[in-house]
UniProtKB/TrEMBL annotation:
This is Termination factor Rho.
């Protein structure tokens, strides 16, 4: 599961806003390559759009 950190529109035309979960529950399955592009600056915008949600560590 990923969290949107910058608003964007995906290749299917779906808008994601900061704080949304990515991908949306009814969205198509995302490839590892697509997740890598959106979670790094290695894209045409040079910006990070999603970050992986980290599970809270138990004490």
């Amino acid at each position: 599961m990923y969290k949107v950190v910058r608003d964007f529109k995906d290749k299917d035309g779906r808008f994601y806003r900061e704080g949304d979960v990515f991908p949306a529950p009814d969205a198509s399955k995302q490839t590892a390559a697509r997740l890598k592009v959106l979670s790094s600056t290695n894209n045409s915008y040079g910006k990070v759009f999603i970050k992986k949600n980290e599970a809270p560590k138990e004490k």
